[in-house]
Every structure is written in structure tokens, then in C-alpha cells.
From TrEMBL:
Matches recorded under InterPro entries: AMP-bd_C, AMP-bd_C_sf, AMP-dep_synth/lig_dom, ANL_N_sf
One GO term (biological process): fatty acid metabolic process
Protein name as annotated: Long-chain fatty acid--CoA ligase
Record key words, sorted: Ligase
Organism: Micromonospora radicis
AMP-dependent synthetase/ligase domain location: 100-268
Top-rank lineage group of the source organism: Bacteria
GO molecular function: medium-chain fatty acid-CoA ligase activity
Domain AMP-binding enzyme C-terminal: 340-417
């Protein structure tokens, strides 16, 4: 029986008594505020607490729902949503309502997600609570930190785990708490955290000592390309924890889960068919996924738009097709591979690699880097590298045409609302 019909209206799923920490208060799913929402509705959540209350409302009543934040919905999209029958509800309760300009019958059990918008304007992808719940077996008791933007696929992955699995407690991070999340995690007994590579790099760069004091047993990365450097640095700080990385998207769901501490996934996983598991393929250098967790209306192989390379026994996801490949005088450069070389430097906390137009060659490779300003625990000479040192580092490891011609040093790792900075 599906999760959408397993409980009567008003009842809650198995995780209802799990502890939930949001906006400074300690509650459970059962004790979150009761909402009265129209259907279909778009909840523009101004706080994590309200977003969780909306998720619980859907779990109990199956109301057609899209949860997001006001910052992700521009005026044109608001008009579009109202024109397709949605009521817009915002603030920390249904205090401000924008009625739909057209009405229609609500689709029971439907959840809508907005894509990240990295390739343009965000799109709506349809799911159900069942298709978003990809962890079904009994899990060790955990207290999870959820730093993701409400309503994103990654947010729903952590939220559905806590809603449907007893013993999976939840601590959510408001935007103003993001820089100090290790202290919040330590205060509430967090032992499992899911975040993007940028999220983890910022924590390692800002306050590695406080981060190391969080008693983590599970670390999960996703949402951006995951390189060996970030996996190794997390393993160094948390030698006894399980470090996992996940490839997932709103369109195809969770498609790759790797626990072996290595970047990429094994080549033998390609074109391997197994019941109730995604099938992975590569077509013209692009990752293709056939998934049981795909969004509504998607069937068969779905081209993901992500570029992959087979290196030895691993398949590496390097970045988006439309941004990863740089043409330098006819030679093809993977921005992701250059980024991996930079982040492998023991003094580099983060790097972003892009193209800059240039006469004759068409484009040149350029980069932005955030360097560690103090000695790391690794046995290397102290001191942050300068631009010339980083260029020499790349020149020793890359063909000449792939070496960045300009490297700009930034004081802090930039991050978007989606916790991403590189895609």
C-alpha cells in the first residue's frame, strides 16, 4: 500500500513522535502547529517550522502542495502558479493569501518540487510522498541536521526519513544559523548531517575545531559534484563516521548512493538492471538514468544534463554539460577536472572554474579560489598559496591549455540559498 493511502485523513505516519528542533524550540512532528491549507496550495515558508508543519499537513491529509521559499518564486512565477490553480500562502501561518486566478480540482496526494534552476528558470516536477521516500528499511536511530532550503528534493529526502521512520530525529537550520550550524548540532545531539560539498567546505574552512567536536556517525554529500579531496578531508576529521555521497535530482530522484569513500561510482554499475533500483547509463558523455523514483510524466531513460567521465574503474560526475566543457583553441577542457586539481591542493578550501572569452583562442580557463589561512592538520608547509603558486600546481598536473590563466583569491566561500556555489 502506498504511503499516500496508508493512513486515514488526519492520521500521521510512523515518525510522528520523532523529536523535531526548529526555530529554537524542541517538539515532535505531532506537536507542530496545525495548519488549514487550501488545495492546491503553494506555501511560501518564511521559517523551517512552518515548512515542516506544511509537510506534516500533507502527510496527514494528502493536500496537493508545493513548499518553497519566497526568494525562489519571482513575480512571474507567482502569476504562473496562480494561473494554474494554486493558492499562494505565505508568512508564518496562513496570514497572507493570494487566490488563484483560475480554479481547478486538486490532485490528491500530489507534491510539487521546484528544480534548482541552475540551467535557467526553475521548473515544477510532480511527486508523491511515496516517490520522495527512498529510505524504507529500518535505520539505526539518528538525529539528523537538515540545512536545506524548504521544499527542495534534498530537503524532502531528510524530511521524509524523519516522518516515516521511528528514531530519525530532526534538527533544522534557519538561514541565519547556517554559519554556526556546528554549535547548533552539538547542542542538540546531532550525529548525522546531510549537505552539499559547498556546505561541508564552508564548515571546514570557517571553524574546523568546532566541527570536529560534533559526534557525527553519518555524513552525506550531494547536490554538486563530489571530488576526492572533500571526501578525504571529511574522513580525516571524522575517521569513524560513514561518509556517503548521493546523486539525486528532482526529475530522477535518488539515483546513486556511494559509501566506499571514493569519488565517482564503480564502472560495473553502468547498465546494471535490478528490481526497484535506478539503471545508470552514459550516452555521449552524459549521465542517463532510468529510475523508479522519477517525477510525474517521466518514463524510461532520462538525460540528466550532467557530464560524466570514465576514469579507470570509476565513473566521475564532473558538472553540467552546458558549463563543464571549455573550448580553448579547439582543445576541450573539463572545468570539473581543473576544479578537482585545485581542490586537491592542501591549502585550497574551495574552487570554481569557468571560461573567459579571449581573442584567437575563443576562451581561456580562469578560476576563483578560497585558501586556508592557517595550517591544516596535513603535513604540508603552512601558509596560504598565492596565485603564482596555484598556477604552478596546476601546470604540474594539467596540459598547458587547461591551466587557469587567472586565479582570483576570495576571502570566503560563496553559497547560494540552495547551499550550492559551483553549479
Amino acid at each position: 500500500m502506498s504511503l499516500d493511502t496508508a493512513h486515514p485523513a488526519g492520521a500521521l505516519p510512523a515518525g510522528a513522535d520523532n523529536r523535531v528542533v526548529a526555530a529554537g524550540g524542541v517538539r515532535s512532528w505531532r506537536e507542530l502547529p496545525e495548519l488549514t491549507l487550501p488545495a492546491p496550495a503553494v506555501v511560501l515558508a518564511h521559517s523551517a517550522r512552518y515548512a515542516l508543519a506544511a509537510a506534516r499537513h500533507h502527510a496527514a491529509y494528502g493536500t496537493e502542495l508545493l513548499i518553497t521559499t519566497a526568494g525562489r518564486v519571482d513575480p512571474a512565477m507567482r502569476d504562473e502558479l496562480r494561473d494554474t490553480g494554486f493558492t499562494l500562502v505565505e508568512a508564518d501561518g496562513p496570514a497572507e493569501v493570494a487566490a488563484p486566478t483560475r480554479t481547478r480540482r486538486a490532485e490528491a496526494g500530489r507534491l510539487w518540487l521546484l528544480t534548482s534552476g541552475t540551467t535557467g528558470r526553475p521548473k515544477r516536477v510532480g511527486h508523491t510522498l511515496e516517490s520522495l521516500t527512498t529510505v524504507r528499511g529500518r535505520q539505526p536511530d539518528r538525529t539528523w541536521l537538515c540545512p536545506y532550503t524548504p521544499g527542495t528534493y534534498a530537503w524532502w529526502q531528510v524530511v521524509t526519513l524523519s516522518l516515516t521512520q521511528p528514531g530519525q530525529h530532526l534538527v533544522v537550520v534557519e538561514p541565519e544559523q547556517l554559519d554556526d550550524w556546528p554549535a547548533l548540532a552539538a547542542a542538540h545531539g546531532v550525529d548525522a548531517v546531510s549537505g552539499t560539498p559547498t556546505f561541508w567546505r564552508r564548515a571546514l574552512h570557517r571553524d574546523p575545531d568546532t566541527l570536529a567536536r560534533v559526534p557525527l556517525r553519518q555524513l552525506t554529500l550531494g547536490g554538486e559534484p563530489v571530488d576526492q579531496a572533500i571526501l578525504d578531508r571529511l574522513r580525516q576529521v571524522f575517521p569513524s563516521a560513514r561518509v556517503s555521497w548521493i546523486y539525486a535530482s528532482s526529475e530522477v530522484g535518488a539515483a546513486v548512493v556511494v559509501h566506499d569513500g571514493r569519488a565517482g561510482f564503480p564502472v560495473e554499475w553502468l547498465d546494471r538492471a535490478a528490481p526497484d533500483r535506478p539503471t545508470l547509463g552514459v550516452r555521449d558523455g552524459e549521465l542517463v538514468v532510468t529510475s523508479p523514483y522519477h517525477g510525474a510524466g517521466l518514463t524510461g531513460p532520462v538525460r540528466t544534463g550532467d557530464r560524466v567521465e570514465v576514469v579507470g574503474d570509476r565513473v566521475l560526475i564532473t558538472g553540467r554539460l552546458d558549463t563543464d566543457e571549455i573550448n580553448v583553441g579547439g582543445s576541450k577542457v573539463s572545468a570539473g577536472r581543473v576544479r578537482d586539481v585545485l581542490t586537491a591542493h592542501p591549502r585550497v578550501a574551495w574552487a570554481r572554474v569557468t571560461a573567459r572569452r579571449a581573442p584567437l583562442l575563443g576562451h581561456l580557463v580562469v578560476a576563483e579560489v578560497v585558501a586556508h589561512g592557517s595550517p591544516s592538520p596535513r603535513p604540508d608547509p603552512p601558509g596560504a598559496p598565492d596565485e603564482a603558486a596555484l598556477v604552478r600546481w596546476c601546470a604540474d598536473r594539467l596540459p598547458d591549455y587547461a591551466v587557469p590563466r587567472r586565479i582570483r583569491l576570495l576571502p570566503e566561500i560563496p553559497v547560494k540559498e540552495t547551499l550550492k556555489s559551483d553549479v
